[in-house]
Amino acid sequence: KGTLLLAAVSQALRTQGASLRRCVANTRVLSTWRGWIMARSTWNCRVALVLACGLHMPLAVARAPHYHPGQLWETAASPTIDEDDMVHLSVDVLQSPTYELSDGPEVRGCHSDSGFTHQPRGLYSQLLFEESFEPPPESTLASAWNMDVTTGSARGVTQLVDNATLAFHGLTAASVRFASGDGAVGVSNRGLGNEGLALESMKPYEGYFFVRAGQDALPRADLTVALRNYVNGEILSSQSFTLNNLTSAYQQIMFKLTPRAATGCVGLSTQEALEKNIDCGNMGPQPGHVCVQCAGELLVALASPGDVLVDFVLLQPGSWGRYKDLPVLRGAGEMLETMGMKVVRQGGTFAKSNWYRWKDWHGPVWTRPSAGAVWKDALVGGWGPFEMADFAMALGGEMVMTTTSNQSAADFADLVEYCWGNASTTWGKQRHKDGHPEPYRIRMFELGNEEYNENFVSQMHAMEERASQIGLGVDLFYFFPNNHGLNETDAAKLLQLGLPAQQVLPDIHVGAEGAIPDAENVFAMMPHFPQMAANCETNAKTHDMLRALQESDDLNHWLALFNQTTRSRLLVRTASFCSERSGHFDEWDQGLSFFLPNMTWLQPPGYVHKMMVEAWLPFAVEATPTGSAGNMTGQSWSTATDKRSSLTLRYTNMLGDSPRKVSITVDRLGCNASSTLQVHANVLTAANTSMANTPSEPALVAPVMLEDVHVQVPKAYKQDSYLVSFTAPANSFTVLQAVCT
Fold first, then answer.
1. What is the pLDDT of residues 114-123, one digit of tens each?
2. Which residues of 362-395 are buried (b: 16+ CB within 10 A; e: fewer)?
């Protein structure tokens, strides 16, 4: 565009003569970076350039002190739109109602449900499935373990041993017996659904396993650990161990492997997957799903005659593939970072089980439960509440910790001490022993999930007392695990105990949107009980463009809460889900982002969050409709400012058949004679609302620059006043930024 502008100016010079040459001498193109067009000139010169050069393009320019009222900045034509499909907004940056967004609810959040097979595996760096050789309860997934791996002329037997006294972790171990011949006898793991591992070339992987003498009690064993391309049989990296002192006690073997070649992934039809013993689960009703085969596997084997038991095997990328050196996949961490997530709620129906008592989920991962959950398929021993807490802190945010409600009040008090206590306290000392000297700094605790917790008041009382005993100077928030909150009897009991009602929050679970009016209804039902509210699940069941529109519409309502009474009582909103596996679909097909063994990408509602945070400003400012507001159905907006020189408008058009002409008068933005006004807009839209992003087209529905943006000086002239307009396509979310520099 800068080139076009200069070309037009050059043509004007040839045709308009010396007076225009003097004008052009005072004009310069400052930048065309990322679609911004910035120019500086005198007013009369700009009008002459526009009229003489005939520039039919958006052109944002700085305004000198003495502009003539009503003069256009640019003359690009707009499409003809019916008056009913126009909206006119007005905002005065210095005088319109404002509030600091940090004083309102935190909306930059997402929800992760560890009860689903696929969800924790989008975050946890463990690449193997069934790490302790136990299939998830009630699972129909194909086993990730291949129990009959032999090479060369080796002969032997491998089998699962379902004997808790012989297992290191849980109920099962693998027995490997090498009887005779040359080569190897062992077991291999190809990850979730037996789909295979996507290994990167010349990048180190690391892990460990536990081994002991087998039932024959042989003290010596030659072991090999290898990464292999099982499609062509090539060993990509291996490490050998000779163990001379095997006993009935397990010992940990650490390894590091660097494959010399990558193992790629290919898409498969469901029939092709079945023929290859690959289980991709359900493909789901939405278009983001695919079945894949990746060529990598991990092999653990005896390399000479011997007899061992193997249990609890871990394989993960080295530091290069983990987010901030945590047990978190780097792609997953960066994806949540891209969406600007500041709160992650780990919760769901899995937390209603006795199996998820928090005291079972601290310390080394191989000491945690491995079987017993029956909600969906399984939890993962290495991905518990404290791994999530570290991850949330690494994102620069915090977590909402959901844990089993039927723990004792003393257990909940110990939880506060474990998270916050120093080494002089019993549970603070245990946290140090577990390798985490720094506090976990969890402020938000949900005591159960989607249930009426009859012990809530006593549990909260114990937690508050322990917080006082350890000198905690931080307010804790206690999420009540249903939409309606405490009943009158329990609310009265809580107040009689002197507990802070303003730190109690019913967790309101909704569909795609609508938690704010639900919260207002809860507040109205008990006006004497000044509780707050949270919205930690948005169960839309979709991840398509319709979900993006619903997500942006709901976020606009949360970001334009100028009712201070309501705003001050809402704490947090987390969208469901942070991530979702392509394939392995369950009935909640609602990931903001998707992952496969070899890639991670955003879905349309994830792009809504990305667009929002990229244009984030600290103060909400009210933009009000003026004049004829047209048909207000199917649209929403929110605006923000830094109170210095910037404004962001977020606008959602949910009309499926009509574009909307949007104009906003901006007063007192902060421009002056030496400023340059930059106006830029991105839009997210799709040909139809059922479209989503697939692995082959991960950016099919993604933001693009909106070309049709116009800027002019209003006819009712004011100093530092602008009229910005654009056309919002049907079914679209637009983020417009205006910045004076």
1. 877 778 888 9
2. bbebbebbbbbbebbbbbbbbbbbbbbbbbbbbb
